[in-house]
Automatic annotation (TrEMBL):
Entry-linked CDD domains: LabA_like_C (cd10146), PIN_LabA-like_N_1 (cd11297)
Membrane spanning stretches: none
Domain HTH OST-type stretches: 209-285
Protein name: NYN domain-containing protein
Stored PANTHER family: HTH OST-TYPE DOMAIN-CONTAINING PROTEIN, SLR1870 PROTEIN
Top-level taxon of the source organism: Bacteria
InterPro entries reported in the protein's UniProt record: LOTUS-like, NYN, OST-HTH/LOTUS_dom
C-alpha cells in the first residue's frame, strides 16, 4: 500500500480541455467553438491574439497546487502541441519538467483520444509506481469518472481540478477532493467588464517580478492555508512546501540566517509568531 506519510504525486493534464474551458469561462459559453476556425487559421490575428491572451492558463498555479500535496513524481500534459493555441505553453511546461504527450489532430471517430491515452497511462503508472499516493487529474470531462474511481479502488487519493462551469458534477463527486481552477492561489479571476479589470492582474504580476521570493512565500502560504484550512501554519511545513515549489530556494542565499528571518523580511506578506515552541506564520492582514 502507498505510504501516505511520504506523499508522492502524479499529475495528468488534459490540456486541450482546460484551455478550451478557460477560454469559454473568460469569453462566454461556447466561445471557443465559435472561434476555433479563426484560431486554427491564424492565431496571430490581433483580435484572436488578444482573446487568447486574456484567456491564458496559469500553468505554474496548477503545478504548484499539485506540489502542495507532496513530491511530484511525474507530470504529463496531453494535447496537440503543434496547434498554436497549445504551442505557446510548451516552454513553460518544459521549464516545469512536464512531459508533453503529443496527440495528433483527432478525426470525428477519435474525439476521446486524450481521455483514453491519459487514462491508460495513469493506470499503468499506478502499477508501475506502487509508492504513488496521489493522482491529480486536471480536466472537467465526465469521461474521467471511471479513471477516478479506479484510482480510488487502487488506494490512491484522487484530486480533481477543473474550470468552474465546465466541470461535470459526476467527476467532482468521483474524486476525493475537487477544486476549481478559478480558485487556485495565483489565478486571477476572469474579467467581468473588459480591459479595466486587468489592472489588478498587472499589479500582481509587477509585484511578483519585483520580489519573486516574497511572491513564492505568499503562494506557499495560500496553498498551505487552503490545504489545512487553518490560519497559522508551521514554519517548517511552509518552508518544505517552498522547497518543493522551487528546489533552488535558500534563505541563506538571499542573505538571511534563518527561515524566520526571511519571513520577517517580508512583513507585507506574512506575520511570524515565535511565542511558543513552534514557530508559526500566517498571511499578513492585507493579504487575506
Amino acid at each position: 500500500m502507498p505510504d501516505m506519510q511520504n506523499a508522492r504525486v502524479a499529475v495528468y493534464l488534459d490540456f486541450d480541455n482546460i484551455v478550451m474551458s478557460w477560454y469559454d469561462r473568460v469569453h462566454g459559453k461556447n466561445s471557443y467553438a465559435r472561434d476555433r476556425q479563426r484560431i486554427a487559421t491564424d492565431a496571430s490575428d490581433p483580435e484572436i491574439a488578444e482573446r487568447l491572451a486574456a484567456a491564458t492558463i496559469d500553468v505554474g498555479a496548477i503545478i504548484d497546487y499539485a506540489t502542495s500535496f507532496g513530491t511530484l513524481v511525474l507530470t504529463r500534459a496531453y494535447a496537440d502541441w503543434s496547434a498554436p493555441v497549445n504551442a505557446i505553453y510548451r516552454s513553460q511546461l518544459v521549464a516545469r519538467a512536464v512531459d508533453l504527450v503529443q496527440l495528433f489532430p483527432a478525426a470525428a471517430y477519435a474525439k476521446n483520444g486524450a481521455d483514453i491515452r491519459l487514462a491508460v497511462d495513469a493506470v499503468e503508472d499506478m502499477f508501475r509506481l506502487p509508492d504513488l499516493t496521489h493522482v491529480v487529474i486536471v480536466a472537467g470531462d465526465s469521461d474521467y469518472v471511471p479513471l477516478a474511481q479506479r484510482c480510488k479502488r487502487l488506494g490512491r487519493y484522487v484530486v480533481g481540478v477543473g474550470v468552474a462551469g465546465s466541470t461535470a458534477k459526476s467527476l467532482a463527486a468521483a474524486c476525493d477532493q475537487f477544486d476549481s481552477y478559478d480558485a487556485l492561489p495565483g489565478v486571477a479571476a476572469p474579467p467581468v467588464t473588459g480591459k479595466k479589470d486587468a489592472a489588478p492582474t498587472r499589479r500582481r504580476a509587477k509585484k511578483a517580478a519585483a520580489d519573486p521570493a516574497g511572491a513564492l512565500l505568499e503562494r506557499a502560504l495560500r496553498l498551505e492555508s487552503d490545504k489545512e484550512d487553518v490560519e497559522w501554519q508551521h514554519a517548517s511545513a511552509v518552508k518544505s512546501l517552498i522547497r518543493r515549489l522551487d528546489p533552488s530556494f535558500s534563505e541563506k542565499a538571499l542573505g538571511h540566517k534563518s527561515f524566520s528571518e526571511f519571513v520577517k523580511a517580508h512583513p507585507t506578506v506574512a506575520e511570524v509568531d515565535e511565542s511558543g515552541n513552534i514557530v508559526l506564520i500566517r498571511l499578513a492582514a492585507g493579504q487575506t
